[in-house]
Design a protein that fits this description.
Layout (H helix, E strand, L loop, with lengths): L8 H18 L4 H11 L6 H13 L4 H22 L8 E2 L2 E2 L1 H5 L1 H18 L4 H8 L7 H10 L2 H6 L1 H8 L1 H12 L7 H22 L6 H13 L9 H10 L3
Antiparallel strand pairs: 1-2
Helix pairs in contact: 1-3, 1-4, 2-6, 3-4, 3-11, 3-14, 4-6, 4-11, 8-10, 11-12, 12-13
């Protein structure tokens, strides 16, 4: 189940900008694989990660076309990961965003090819930003999303509960950290350590809330404490962090 994000006007503007660029990037993808790519990406997703990137850049006063491209690359990569997650050999999910998953709509072979193509498109979108492109492609390491998915598939019962935080570190946190990296691209490294820590704690908070909504954890107080830890990292930025505070408010109100 996906945690709903109620996007207020300041965040909806970011979402619209990301959606427009995603549509442009995907418009030239031909054939049935291109259709599957557009189906997977342009399906009303929350755009949490690219919005996070733009809000980080807005906090620092460094929103540029480069930031927007990097943010859209994160979303393309995230969409590819969702296609793979839904496959019968993975989570075997028939629905994504309240409609048939890509492999149900187009078949497993086309869905898998679309996922590969989306990763390639994400990498090309930031080809002129080699350090960021490297961060993005490292998400495919066995020490990152791939390893997290493998561990998630292998765990059962009490062992799954005991390893939940480790799975989150591998599977959920990296894309939130990558989104923050996108937001930092034009900042010259200003506040990098604190904001990357914010991205990590936000990823943990997001996954805890997602697990709570899915009924996998029941301790709402622990979730509230995690959101408080995440919010505390914004204290030095004062009113400049209003957009990120709004982001946290809505994410925590499931």
């Amino acid at each position: 189940m996906t945690v709903p994000l109620l996007v207020e006007p300041d965040l909806s503007t970011d979402r619209l900008r990301v959606d427009q660029l995603l549509a442009e990037r995907l418009s030239g993808q031909p054939g049935v694989v291109g259709d599957a790519m557009r189906y997977a990406v342009l399906s009303g997703g929350q755009r949490l990660r690219p919005i996070l990137a733009l809000q980080v850049a807005d906090l620092l006063g460094t929103v540029t076309e480069t930031t927007l491209r990097a943010a859209s690359a994160v979303e393309l990569f995230h969409s590819a990961s969702l296609i793979v997650d839904d496959l019968p050999c993975m989570d075997n999910s028939a629905l994504r965003r309240n409609r048939p998953a890509a492999h149900i709509q187009f078949g497993e072979a086309t869905a898998l090819l679309a996922a590969f193509a989306l990763v390639g498109l994400a990498a090309r979108t930031v080809a002129d930003l080699p350090p960021f492109q490297l961060h993005l492609l490292r998400m495919l390491d066995s020490s990152s999303l791939v390893g997290g998915q493998a561990l998630d598939l292998a765990l059962r019962g009490e062992e799954r509960d005991s390893q939940r935080a480790h799975v989150t570190d591998l599977k959920t946190v990296p894309l939130f950290e990558l989104a923050v990296e996108a937001g930092l691209l034009e900042s010259g490294g200003q506040h990098r350590r604190r904001l990357l820590e914010f991205g990590r704690e936000l990823g943990i908070a997001y996954q805890m809330m997602d697990d709570y909504v899915d009924g996998e954890i029941a301790d709402r107080a622990a979730i509230d404490r995690q959101f408080a830890r995440t919010r505390d990292l914004l204290a030095p930025f004062g009113v400049s962090a209003v957009g990120l505070h709004s982001f946290l408010d809505h994410l925590g109100n499931a």
